[in-house]
Amino acid sequence: MLELLQNLQVTLLHTGYAKLGPEWDFDNVISPFIRLFYVTKGSATVHHSNKTFHTKEGHMYLIPSYTYNRYKSTPYHEQYYISIFEEVLSGPSIFNMRTFAYEVPLQEGDELLFKRLVKMYPERKIVNSDPKSYVHRPQELMAQNRQNAQTNTSRFLETQGILYVLLSRFVKNVVPNRTDQSNDYRFANVLRYISENLHTQLRVQDLARLCHLNTDHFSRLFLQECGIRPLKYIQTRRIERAQLLLWTTNQTLEEIAHKVGMGNFSYFSKTFKKITGTTPGKYRKQQKITP
């Protein structure tokens, strides 16, 4: 887990303050970034990760990237919000390790951190609360962050510090027993290997060999530990990577299909639609919609 966190890079995309009424009612939302918000007034209902959260004033909420969620105001609420692009230099998402809470009470000073980001980046607010109409300018926003790091190092470091502090509020500091540590270590290596080799052919028997297990036993343990079968997990990760490339690059659909290890474009397109509900081309167009 420590190695994973040391490889974690976070980038601020959006931040702002919103007053949301009954129109804040959306289903089938899957964002390629982490969403974090703090409720200051009113209430809302948020569903994700097989849980339902009835938001409370003075509490912060976290929605992991690439997580199906739906939400609505009940009937009105106000929130500070932040969206964060997560990149792990080596290995799976930090959320694969299952060590995060999704609802936590605000700690002393946290509200000031939200307000500070909003003051620092007034141009990063989301104009239209409909997820399909977000100003998805990842390349431009990340380029601005890189320029910020070069021209205003203190502001860049302050931004990074605020993001890490707020994310730290959701970490569960639970020490697993020895058996769980062994399984976590083995499967963390497998998840890292999958993440680093999505562009290649990945076979379950090869993954099992990494754990020194036979294929059947490995598949059962993987399902038990990760809640999904190995091939389904690989397929899902390929499509998540494709979504990221569609969202952040101008590469052709065929190039992206090859980069995620799905050289057969027809199979790639069919699988993409099965998992996301839309085709790769339509998904890319949706991300370019502006208010």
From TrEMBL:
Gene3D superfamilies, per the entry: Homeodomain-like
One protein family per Pfam: HTH_18
A GO MF label: sequence-specific DNA binding
PROSITE patterns: HTH_ARAC_FAMILY_1 (PS00041), HTH_ARAC_FAMILY_2 (PS01124)
UniProt KW keywords: DNA-binding, Transcription, Transcription regulation
HTH araC/xylS-type domain segment(s): 188-286
Family matches, as SMART domains: HTH_ARAC
PANTHER family: ARAC-FAMILY TRANSCRIPTIONAL REGULATOR, HTH-TYPE TRANSCRIPTIONAL ACTIVATOR RHAS
Protein name, per record: Transcriptional regulator, AraC family
Organism phylogeny: Bacteria, Pseudomonadati, Bacteroidota, Flavobacteriia, Flavobacteriales
